[in-house]
Amino acid sequence: MNDDNLQLDVRSKAFALAIMSQAEKLPDSHQARLIRVQLLQIGTAIGAHVRAAMRNRFERGSRYSQAETAADETAYWLELAIEARLSATGALPKLLNEAQELTRICAEQRKEAREEAAPPRRPVSDRRDDRRDDRRDNIRRDDRGDSRRDDRGDSRRDERGGSRPQGRSDYRGGSSGGSSSGGGGGGDEGGFRRSDGDRSSPPRRGGGAPDRPQRPRGRAGD
Q1: What is the pLDDT of residue 79?
Q2: What is the rounded average pLDDT of the residues 19-32?
Q3: Which of 149, 172, 191, 202 is the most exposed place for a label (fewest CB within 10 A)?
């Protein structure tokens, strides 16, 4: 807490007490009652926002902005009271000058708080260099990605064009051991070789399903 903030806290609190004192001296008319309520509500809020800004440094900018708005609105209602001649004393013009000074001080504090919270701006030349480096990095990433895609494409083409291993077949055409297609020889039946674990019958030459056994025909009298 620096001296400027401490002085502003004391000054805004003294202003709130002066507003409360002069508001009670206004006449009991409808216009005076309206201005009295506004002065008591807004004029005392300046010190509350300043105290909140001093307590929390993360809300300094917003709190000083609210204090500035409250001080400016208080000056507006004081101007109305002076122009409407609701008070015969000379205290309201002094309060108006104080409200304008508080508005100016709160505006300065708001600017300082936001400048401290904002990150430092870098020179334009440094930002241009960063953008240039980013473009170079993107080009390098694109080049690496294209080369990787080309390598994957070449490997896939090699896999498709390479020789594939031939699977074993349990049935192989032709005859071995001098067997012929028509005669039986050595366990082959018409060029059909049966594996050890296969117990099925050889396929038909003409293709299709094997013939079903025919039922014996009975005589006409049966």
Answers
A1: 95
A2: 92
A3: 149
Q: Based on C-alpha coordinates, what's the Rg of the chain?
A: 51
- Give the integer Cα–Cα distance in Å for 97 and 100: 5
Supply the CATH classification number for the domain 3-117: 1.20.1440.60
pLDDT for position 2: 65
Look at 138 and 86; give whichever has higher pLDDT: 86
Cβ-based burial of 110 (10 A; exposed 0-12, middle 13-18, buried ≥19): buried
Q: What is the pLDDT of residues 109-137, one digit of tens each?
A: 999 888 877 666 655 566 566 666 676 77
Would the pTM of this model clear 0.85, i.e. be above it?
no
The single residue listed with the structure tokens 């291993």 is 165
Q: In angstroms, rounded to a whole number, what is the distance separating the alpha carbons of residues 19 and 36?
A: 9
Provide CB contacts within 8 A for 98, sequence distance 6+.
15, 18
Alpha-carbon span 73 to 106, nearest angstrom: 13
Helix/strand/coil (H/E/C) assignment for every residue in 30-55 = HHHHHHHHHHHHHHCHHHHHHHHHHH
Nearest to 9 by CA among 58, 49, 44, 50: 50
Domain ranges of the chain: 3-117
